[in-house]
Design brief:
Pfam families: DDE_3. InterPro entries: RNaseH_sf, Tc1-like_DDE_dom, Transpos_IS630-like. This is Tc1-like transposase DDE domain-containing protein. It comes from Streptomyces platensis. With about 200 residues, this protein is an alpha/beta fold. The chain has a single domain (about 5-25, about 55-200), classed as 2-Layer Sandwich (Nucleotidyltransferase, domain 5). Helix content is about 35%, strand content about 20%. The chain contains 6 helices and 5 strands, in the order H-E-E-E-H-E-H-E-H-H-H. The protein has helices at about 5-15, 90-105, 125-130, 150-160, 170-185, 190-200; strands at about 20-30, 55-65, 70-80, 110-115, 135-140. A 5-stranded mixed β-sheet has the order 3-2-1-4-5, with helices on both faces. Strand 2 (about 55-65) and strand 3 form a beta hairpin. Helix 2 runs parallel beside helix 3 (about 125-130) and helix 4 (about 150-160) packs across helix 6. The chain is globular, with a radius of gyration of 19 Å.
């Protein structure tokens, strides 16, 4: 479908009161991202971290936009239980449940935009999505993270709440992630700013 067709479908969805929702997922480990900080001249700051734990937490997040409404951030965590044979990433059922919860919270139809991750195109998920009259799905072009506002959410987390932190336990990491995401949730201008960076705009139908 050409850009004109996509725009037309988007306008029709907006006329039905749809939310434009972007999705992405990211993994976070016990090793903190590094960021610039202040220190005394000649004394380089050192952050000592525990290197024995390789456990990660994965987050799937949705940024939700609708003209005339406060922008929303919805997310779900998935923790690595350390089981070598256990699944570490989100399954198609996890995405189904996340989208169902988002539909209930937003109270209206959803136009979902996400990347071409293999699980996003799983036959079971596509079959389920086709049966939901409130859900329309579009896929981003390959290798286009700059078009996804959720990337901005990850950047805020890594540059703010997670940078230069010596995590003592996996629970400590989870606590910091939740604190950062809750902060963003209550500040819609941050969510709007993530959309602005992509240079995408949302206009009333």
């Amino acid at each position: 479908m050409g850009q004109g067709g996509v725009a037309l479908r988007g306008r029709l969805a907006a006329a039905r009161g749809a939310w434009l929702v972007f999705e992405d997922e990211a993994g976070f480990s016990m090793t903190p991202p590094q960021a610039k900080t202040w220190s005394q001249r000649g004394r380089t700051p050192v952050v000592r971290v525990r290197g024995r734990s390789r456990r990660r937490i994965s987050i799937a997040a949705l940024t939700c936009y609708k003209p005339g409404h406060r922008s929303r951030l919805i997310y779900r965590p998935r923790r690595d239980d350390g089981n070598r044979d256990g699944r570490k990433s989100f399954s198609w059922r996890d995405y189904r449940d996340l989208l169902t919860a988002a539909h209930q919270q937003l109270g209206g139809p959803i136009v979902l935009v996400w990347d071409n991750l293999h699980v996003h195109k799983a036959a079971e998920l596509r079959e389920w999505a086709a049966s939901q009259d409130w859900l329309t799905i579009y896929y981003l072009p390959p290798y286009a993270p700059d078009l996804n506002p959720v990337e901005g959410i990850w950047s805020l987390l890594r540059r703010g709440w997670l940078s230069n932190v010596a995590f003592s336990t996996p629970e400590h990491l989870v606590q910091r992630i939740r604190r950062g995401l809750r902060h963003i949730q209550y500040r819609s201008h941050l969510i709007d700013g993530c959309l602005t960076v992509t240079r995408l705009t949302i206009r009333p139908a």
